[in-house]
Write a structure and sequence with these properties.
Strand content: under 5%
Number of strands: 4
Number of helices: 13
Order of helices and strands: HEEHHHHHHHHHHEEHH
Radius of gyration: 22 Å
Oligomer: single chain
Largest sheet: 2 strands, antiparallel
Shape: globular
Length: about 280
């Protein structure tokens, strides 16, 4: 599939293509798809900007929440086994199901969140809801995905923390280190490989994000907004744009997009590895 996708990226369809034999009737176009991507496809660049914002919202928040849960549940708290299972449970559920549940929570007037806000006098979202407002749609989806994935990160951090020798923490306590000092100077440096793993997988998840956008925007790419005179979807991430391109039958162009996303993911991953690698 990887090799065939590269082969497809050098082909294109036209209005004269046989839509019952689309793969057999595509035309060789060389680097034309890539030239168009890099020079003329404003919608793609907008999707990459939105993807960057989405990654900035989900990755740091997901890592911070996962680490916080792991640190708390590493203590001998009553019922910690129950809470570990409870926080991990959303990660087991299908992403489409989770998306639909959050659509119901975010829905205007009858959604749980809007009903609670109305009780304290906030009625701003009662008309469009969180997913119908261009300013709040992307953060709303990001929040849902952070809460869904926090359990998985929690398990990773919890495993890493439990592998840290207790003598390290005891030495820090003897030196007068506070809880915050132990977290900053002992725990975080020693779980850096997990942080690197979560950043790289988070970048890949953001570039390929499709199901949550499909489920939570009714397959539309989110509410419409105006950017530099262009009408664009407020939550139309690169993965969703790739799906829409493929859905239109532009298989060669969609394959070129996928390879561009691959290059972007590799560059970002390489930078993260260089920055966060062990010294």
């Amino acid at each position: 599939p990887i090799i065939y996708s590269l082969f497809l990226s050098f082909h294109k369809t036209s209005i004269y293509s046989d839509w019952y034999n689309i793969f057999g009737d595509m035309q060789w176009c060389g680097l034309s798809n890539y030239v168009t991507l890099l020079t003329a496809d404003a919608e793609l660049w907008w999707s990459l900007v939105v993807t960057l914002l989405y990654a900035a919202l989900t990755i740091p928040a997901g890592i911070a929440l996962s680490l916080l849960l792991a640190v708390l549940l590493n203590n001998k708290l009553p019922g910690r086994s129950f809470f570990r299972s409870a926080y991990f449970l959303p990660n087991v559920l299908d992403l489409l199901v989770v998306g639909i549940i959050w659509v119901l929570i975010y829905s205007p007037r009858f959604g749980l969140l809007d009903v609670m806000l109305n009780k304290i006098g906030i009625t701003f979202f009662s008309d469009t809801g969180f997913l119908g407002n261009p300013l709040t749609a992307l953060p709303a989806i990001a929040l849902a995905m952070v809460l869904k994935g926090a359990g998985f990160g929690m398990i990773l951090f919890l495993t890493a923390i439990q592998n840290i020798s207790s003598s390290v923490y005891e030495a820090a306590e003897v030196d007068g280190a506070s809880w915050w000092d132990r977290l900053r100077h002992v725990t975080i440096p020693l779980v850096k490989p997990i942080i690197l793993f979560m950043i790289i997988t988070g970048v890949l998840a953001s570039l390929n994000a499709f199901t949550e956008i499909y489920a939570m925007t009714n397959a539309s790419g989110g509410p419409i907004t105006q950017v530099f005179g262009r009408t664009v979807g407020a939550t139309k991430l690169s993965g969703f744009y790739l799906f829409k391109t493929f859905e239109r039958g532009q298989y060669g162009y969609a394959a070129a997009i996928s390879y561009l996303l691959l290059v972007i993911a590799m560059v970002i991953s390489f930078i993260n590895i260089k920055v966060l690698q062990e010294k």
